[in-house]
Amino acid sequence: MKENEINTLFKKELIRLNEKFTSQEDFFKKVSKWLTKKGYVKDTFYQAIYHREQESPTGLHTPTFDVAIPHTDPEYVYEAFIAVIRPEQPISFREMGNLQGATEPQLLFVIGFKESKDQLSILQNLMKMFQDQKVMDFYLRSNDTEEIYTTINEYLRTAAYKA
Amino acid sequence: MKKSINVLSVCGSGTVTSSMIAGKVTDILKENGYNAKTTETNPNGVESELSNGSWDIIVHTSPLKSTYNVPSINAVGLLTGMDEEGFIEELLDAVSKLE
């Protein structure tokens, strides 16, 4: 993966820490509003991503802690992005792959794919990152958006070289 | 014993996580002496793929809409590294029963 590809996907302005959400629906509403305002997605994005989450949930148990990677089809996205949101309280998401399991994500990566296949490698590296206790703990602890941004970029860039 | 395995890989979009697991399943099968052919689809596409082709196994990261006559395995563990061994065991067990 090219370095500039990572830099264009992750944006400092799309990292939100300690946000309050009352429900999963509230989460998607608020996040979609930010993304629409900033011009990343069409105004149909909210319906699409909320619906997708009900059909194909994206909550994940990982070796560190629960995360979620909500995403939907490229047709609702103007510009590819990855938004990182850390809610003040975990939000309930159903588990990916089945209709029974529940997860309580503490960190959510909302992904706007443009050309799906091209962004596979970044998702693969995210999965590696989710298994890394040291950086994941840091993302939960830190209140410094800049530092989190730099760490994620650095991590994915290095993981990309290793891969 | 069947050596060439047709794998239908299913995720919500039919492109992203299904491609990731298709790649890994192909590698696992190769390492264990099988050839794999994979196709990706979304849950709504499963029915027509099944009626238009011959499939040996379904691996999925999105819940399936129904129960089909083809063994299906939840492959989310392949993405996250949670119980990857359990998945591999289940996969090899399923393909070893194919005729």
From TrEMBL, chain A:
A Pfam family reported for this protein in Swiss-Prot or TrEMBL: PTS_EIIA_2
Sorted UniProt keywords: Sugar transport, Transport
Domain PTS EIIA type-2 intervals: 8-155
InterPro entries recorded: PTrfase/Anion_transptr, PTS_EIIA_type-2_dom, PTS_SugarTrans_NitroReg
Stored Gene3D superfamilies: Mannitol-specific EII, Chain A
Name of this protein: PTS sugar transporter subunit IIA
Lineage, top ranks: Bacteria, Bacillati, Bacillota, Bacilli, Bacillales
UniProtKB/TrEMBL annotation, chain B:
Gene3D superfamilies in the cross-refs: 3.40.50.2300
Lineage summary: Bacteria, Bacillati, Bacillota, Bacilli, Bacillales
GO BP of this protein: phosphoenolpyruvate-dependent sugar phosphotransferase system
The keyword Transferase is annotated on this UniProt entry: yes
Domain PTS EIIB type-2: 5-99
Key words of the record: Transferase
Protein known as: PTS fructose transporter subunit IIB
PROSITE patterns: PTS_EIIB_TYPE_2
